[in-house]
Write a structure and sequence with these properties.
Length: 396
Amino acid sequence: MKGLKAVTGLMLSLGVAGQAQASEPYAKQVISSVVLTGNVGNSSSNPLDTLGAPDSKFLAMGGPGASIVLDMGDTPIVDGSGPDIEIREIGSATGGVDEEYRVLISDSTDPASFVLVGTGSAFSLLDISATGLSSARYVRIEDLSTATSNSSTPGSDIESVTSLHSGNGSLAPVTGLAYSVTNNGIRLSWNPMTGSGVLGYSIRKSLDGVRFDSTANWTLSDLDTAFLDNQATQAIQNIQPQVVGDLWYGVSVRYSGGESALQIVHVSSLTTSLYTQVEHLGDNTMATWQVPSPTTKLTLNLYLPAVPRGPFVKLNFDLFDVDNSTNRVVINGHAQRTLPVQSAESWQGKSMVFESGLFLQGNNTIEIHSRDSGGGSTGNLDDFQIRDISLTRLDP
C-alpha cells in the first residue's frame, strides 16, 4: 500500500506516566507504538495523546501496520457484567470518518501473549469474556483503516481507552439510566449530574451494542435528564428496517474537561413467526419452483394482545424473483405498501417498516398480493415466491 511504502514506523518505549492518575480507569502509559504518516504526513502523531480521560486529543495511528500497546496500570481491564472496555476513535467528530481497528489484551507485554477481543470502530464497547482472561493490564490496538490515508490525520484517531469495571474516573458517568417504550418512541431517563463542570449529555444509538458513532446523535443541556427518540416524526418511506429491532443507547456526561464513559441500555425486541411455508404468488405455473402452482393472494391472521408500542414494527420475509414494483402488502384491509423488488432467482431476506398504529389489539390481517406491471390484478401477474414471514416489534 502506498501509505506504508512512504513511511517509517516510530517505535516508542515510554516510561513516563501519562495523564491518568492512579485508580482512574484510563490508559496510563505507552509501552510501545508504531505510528505511520500515511501519504501526506501526520499532524497528530503523539502516542501520549491516547492517555488519560477523553479530552479531544488523539493519536492518528496512520493506517494498517500501525499499532500501540497501552498500560492500564492499577486499573486493568476486568471481565464484568456487559462491556468491559471502551475505545474512543473520534474520526467523524473531528471532521473525518469513523474508522476500524482491532483490539487485543494481555497481562504481559510479550507480543505473543495478546488475545483478540474484537474489532471496533468509532466509540466501541467490547466484552472480554470470550478471551478466557479474567483481567488484563495491557491493551494493544491495531489500525485497520485505509479511509483517510490521504489526510493529515491518517488512520484511526484513538482518543482514549477506559476500563469500565475498575477504578473511579474523574469524569463520573451518568447513573440511573433507564428506558421505557411509549406509543411514539423510546424514552430515556437518568439521574441529574451536578457540579460546575457539567455541560450536558451526549446520546448515541447503536444497532449492535458495540459500535457507536463518535459524533453524538443528540446533545442535551445539563438541565435535561430525559430524552424521547421520537422516530414517528420521520416519513415512513425514509425509515430504514434496521431501526426496528434491538437497539442500544449510550449516554455520556459532557464536562468542561472532557466526556465520561458511555453508559448503555439495551432496548430489546420481540419477533413473532407468522408463516414458514413457501408460497408462490402470481398466475403462471413454474415447473422448476418449489411450489409450481400459484395463487394471487396470501392472507395471514395475527392476534396481538395489545397495540405494539413504539412508532414502528417490521415485517420480515424471504423473497424469490420479485420483478414488479407494484406488488402490494395490505394491513387490516386499508394500509397498502409496496413489496420490495428482489429480481434474483434466489432467496434473499427483506423487510418492510409499518407504523405501529396500523395494527389493532386483537385480530389483524396481513395480505400479500401479486400485481401486473401496471398495478392491476387481472392478468400477466408477477410470479414470485415468499417464505419465512415474521413480525418484529419493540419489547415494552
